[in-house]
Amino acid sequence: MARTAIPGRLTWRAATVTAVRDETPTARTLTLDVPGWPGHLAGQHVDVRLTAPDGYSAQRSYSLASASPTVELTVQVLADGEVSPYLGTAVKPGDQLELRGPVGGWFVWRPTDPAPVLLVAGGSGIVPLMAMIRTRAAAGSRTPFRLVHSARTPADALYATELARRTRDDAGLDVHHVWSRTAGRLTVATLNTHGWPPDFAPACYVCGPTGFVEAAADMLVALGHSPRLVKTERFGGTP
Amino acid sequence: MAIVSPGFHGRRRADPDLPPGQYLTTDFPVLSAGPTPRVPADRWQFTVTTETGAATTWTWADLTAMPARDVTVDIHCVTKWSKLGTTWRGVPVSAFLEDVDTAADYAMAHSYGGYTTNLPLDDLLDDQAWVAYRYDGDDITPEHGGPVRLLVPHLYFWKSAKWLRGLTLMLEDSPGFWETAGYHDYGDPWREQRYQGD
Ligand SMILES: Cc1cc2nc3c(=O)[nH]c(=O)nc-3n(C[C@H](O)[C@H](O)[C@H](O)COP(=O)(O)OP(=O)(O)OC[C@H]3O[C@@H](n4cnc5c(N)ncnc54)[C@H](O)[C@@H]3O)c2cc1C
């Protein structure tokens, strides 16, 4: 495995919310102005820290949704969550938060990577994969990308309009949706049909709730993909 | 200075047993970089290799015949969750080092699947680290690192290598998998050593 550069001290930075955009009824994208942002790779995340008036604080990780140097986070609200309801409903433009990053040098895609790419997303697990799609477009890369996105219903699918536009304009990008409420969970057959043959040695990125990632990564290995080419990011939830 | 969010109240479950920046979970989340390797216990082996290359290997039968300890410990994942009072059965790492001739100060834990993580040897001795093979009264499931994982609960949980297959003793420290990707070489949750430079 290649050694990545060790980043300097990851200090907490003040970020200002400059725009807020609804993605679905339960997910929002925050655009942040982060003075001194060093830039990031597609797939990396930040840690966000919220502090209450009495000093109590909580931290969570959020993937960068945007191509560098723009800093955008998409937060899916979990109804009983501690942090996501605040970021996903209460925060407004002009508010400040603390964040540090970018973090993570493994679950990343670089425009110089030559292999075809298979992205497999469950729910909000699409966020870092969208950063890869956007980074590919921004870099003018022609690396073939396929995305299989499982979401509960069409109304729950993040970035659906943008993905429809991008696939229309770009022959190198394919997107397949699985609506899990009606079609059930992701299956080996779907990954076989809408992924790449293992012979192409694609770089596979799997992201979503832990149970989804466990299942999808196992399916890719069962289809013959080398475990070394399957990178995973688990967002949480019970396996 | 911290930025205060007036509308944020959090969950008020500040707990003296939690290191800074951690929150309590009753689930058992999973952090791994790739698919879960599946290693049958009867094919599992554990090898300690010294800095001179001398190697000693144990099988599942060897491991489960050794004097084991039942321990109840708190675990802290760098992704911010902590789980308190988890119960494990394992053999102290020291038991595998008793007859080993070494001047090493560091160890690299190796896993099935290629994962590695580095630790000071001192942190593996005494009652601090176990080669664990049962969790909560059952076999350890593959997602949680079974059949056998390292358990080093006083450090962030990525140091507790899942699917453990060996320890390589080293004279000098060298970064493992997450450490190479920017995570801290030591990883003390109470000093919040998440990333290099913390
Ligand atoms: C590297 C990384 C990147 C992440 N990127 C994103 C991102 O881009 N967008 C995003 O919305 N979230 C992301 N997450 C998840 C995020 O960090 C929080 O876990 C999530 O927002 C829930 O926090 P909370 O405080 O609202 O809920 P909590 O109060 O922490 O949890 C409430 C309940 O929900 C469960 N739960 C936690 N996470 C999930 C989940 N993903 N699915 C189902 N149940 C869950 C918990 O087990 C708990 O029972 C990422 C996580 C990691 C580790």
UniProtKB/TrEMBL annotation, chain A:
Task: Quote the SUPFAM superfamilies the UniProt record gives.
Answer: Ferredoxin reductase-like, C-terminal NADP-linked domain, Riboflavin synthase domain-like
Q: Which Pfam families match?
A: FAD_binding_6 (PF00970), NAD_binding_1 (PF00175)
Q: Which InterPro entries match?
A: Cbr1-like_FAD-bd_dom (IPR008333), FAD-bd_FR_type (IPR017927), FNR_nucleotide-bd (IPR039261), MRET (IPR050415), OxRdtase_FAD/NAD-bd (IPR001433), Riboflavin_synthase-like_b-brl (IPR017938)
* Swiss-Prot/TrEMBL keywords: 2Fe-2S, Iron, Iron-sulfur, Metal-binding
Molecular-function GO terms, alphabetical: 2 iron, 2 sulfur cluster binding; oxidoreductase activity
Q: What cofactor does its activity depend on?
A: FAD
Using the record's annotation, list all stretches that form the FAD-binding FR-type domain: 10-109
Among Gene3D superfamilies, the record links this protein to: Nucleotide-binding domain of ferredoxin-NADP reductase (FNR) module, Translation factors
User: What CDD domains does the record point to?
Assistant: FNR_iron_sulfur_binding_3
Q: What is this protein called?
A: Oxidoreductase
Q: Which organism is it from?
A: Spirilliplanes yamanashiensis
From TrEMBL, chain B:
Residue span, Oxidoreductase molybdopterin-binding domain: 34-178
Signal peptide, first to last residue: none
InterPro entries assigned to the protein according to its UniProt record, in alphabetical order: OxRdtase_Mopterin-bd_dom, OxRdtase_Mopterin-bd_sf
Query: Which species is listed as the source?
Result: Spirilliplanes yamanashiensis
Q: Gene3D superfamilies recorded for this chain?
A: Oxidoreductase, molybdopterin-binding domain
Q: Which domain of life is it from?
A: Bacteria
Could you identify this protein by its name? Molybdopterin-binding protein
Q: Which Pfam families match?
A: Oxidored_molyb
Q: Lineage, please?
A: Bacteria, Bacillati, Actinomycetota, Actinomycetes, Micromonosporales
